[in-house]
């Protein structure tokens, strides 16, 4: 298949190490994951053993330093996310939640004991983590969360429900955010803790190659050592979300590129009226327009990666990337499906699977509306959603 990003020679903007990491991730996925992902999507499952394989590949928490993590650049991590989502959003979601939410919350806000206990195992995929912030009635407004943590002697007692939690049913440890008398705090809840249970959400039309769950906490008793000591406000989980959104900026490019590549390949071999449909003007217009869109998204992602590496990346800039690249990707996936015609609704081809997945990506880690309001706030100084 052709790589549409070659049109503007975008790979020339990458360093040798970055290109090598991207190529290594792409080659592994092509050999071991891509051949099975349509089957996993149809079955609505993700095999747990994939976690250890991704750990061996080195992509779990790859942008973190120490504790068995690779310590790669932000751009290298973004390029890995691109290749992961080019296969399926569910695969990139697993890696994002493991590394940028579960592991990052411990790495950034945990005690040294918590880091030593969990990060090495999470980096290898021996353990799986999840991130419990969203509640049934509070998604875009996490400050309204009802999950509570109350002191009881030297312990904390947690009660509440979290929903739409990626990796929840697989996780060995959940980072759970709860309201306390002092404000929002984070707690590490190991699987098997009395009162803590998970229920997988079934009958999904999107992100089917991903485990999505509800977390229930009923009088869950935790010691003080389970609290993330440096997480002292809602700013902590929101900072974690920005880490995950950065991966989405690149991941969306991967889904778009893969959809477009499928359309390019198909249109070059599909013959109608005695010639390949790639020769028709309307088809070429679609292909050219989509290539411009995915190239723009990739250039934006590269720019944000350089800002992140310089330590100057702002939340509203991540909002620009997440909004633009996901909106563009879902449009490209849908347009690519039209080039495939009726065959495009088959799991043999990726564009409609990507489009279905991107419906979730459009919503999670901040809906498009919320990101537009974040950008509007940055432009006007007026927080319209408060």
Q: Please, could you describe this protein's structure?
A:
With 386 residues, the chain is of the alpha+beta class. It has three domains: 4-124, Butyryl-Coa Dehydrogenase, subunit A, domain 1; 129-226, Butyryl-CoA Dehydrogenase, subunit A, domain 2 (Beta Barrel); 235-380, Up-down Bundle (Butyryl-CoA Dehydrogenase, subunit A, domain 3), CATH 1.20.140.10. Helices cover 51% and strands 16% of the residues. The protein contains eleven helices and eleven strands. The protein has helices at residues 16-32, 34-43, 50-57, 74-87, 89-109, 112-124, 235-269, 281-310, 315-340, 351-361, 368-380, and strands spanning 65-66, 69-70, 129-132, 148-152, 155-166, 173-180, 183-190, 196-200, 212-223, 271-272, 275-276. A four-stranded antiparallel beta sheet has the order 4-5-9-8, covered by helices on one side. It has a three-stranded mixed beta sheet with strand order 3-6-7, with helices on one face. Helix 1 packs parallel to helix 4 (74-87) and helix 4 runs antiparallel to helix 5 (89-109).
Concise account of the structure shown:
By secondary structure, the chain is of the alpha+beta class. It contains 11 helices and 11 strands.
